[in-house]
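User: Some background: our group keeps a shared notebook of sequences we're curious about, and every so often someone picks one and asks for a predicted structure to add to the entry. Today it's my turn. The entry only has the sequence so far, pasted here. Could you supply the structure so I can complete it?
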Amino acid sequence: MSGPVVPALEIAVTSPAGARVARDNGADRVELCTGLELGGLTPSAALVEAVAAVGLPVQVLVRCRPGDFVHDAEEIALMAAEVRSVIASGASGVVVGALSADGGLDTEAVMRLAAAARDADRPVEVTLHRAIDLSADPVATAALLPALGLTRVLTSGGAPAAGQGLERLAAMVEAAPGVQVMAGGGVRPSDIPALTVAGVAAVHLSAKRRAEPRRGVAWVPLGVAGASADEDTHFVTDPAVVAEASRMLAARTAVRQPW
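Assistant: Of course. Here's the predicted structure to add to the notebook entry:
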């Protein structure tokens, strides 16, 4: 008799270097974006190609701007074009989403983005991103996803961090049969046991730390409001965090029983 399905480990990365760190420390796939400090934005086609060459499956975030997830027609059209572009560049899947002004899922927009993904001549995964956590009712929103044909949903269960949204995550698993519920948002390796008990199909970590500045000259702020010289840098993937998350999931594989 087979044991329980072990959740996959997805790491959010912003570069080929981050993807290599994820690959070498046990991740199953990566989510690629730029502007991680802004919640993530659509990467360039060249960046998608470079990360896909690392070898892990690449889920690409398609989000044309920071801020809320209520998008107008021009933004939706732009993101549909971005979906096609990143898939042509080697993405295994796309991570998309949109809300209506009243907090409902913008099903028309999501269906259009999913349809753009399925224009490809190969299977492509479609994930609903954390817009669901800003929806008026995350569980009811999750229940809509099977009919839309989405592959998975990235969510904290509507909480500030996934470790605080366990009850709702479990409810979302029940509400969306056939859709992989992936816990993400403030996830630490120590959260993984409780998240797996909630029944999630995957865990998602940014596993990030600030990069050491490379500048050798005086610093001048360039539009980063309130930032200091130490804060005005970018994030990189921390191998220790990825490895610890992988170890936590490997322990579940070895035990083959609930935590």
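Suggested note for the entry: Helices lie at 16-24, 45-52, 73-88, 107-117, 138-148, 166-175, 192-197, 239-255. The chain has a mean pLDDT of 92.
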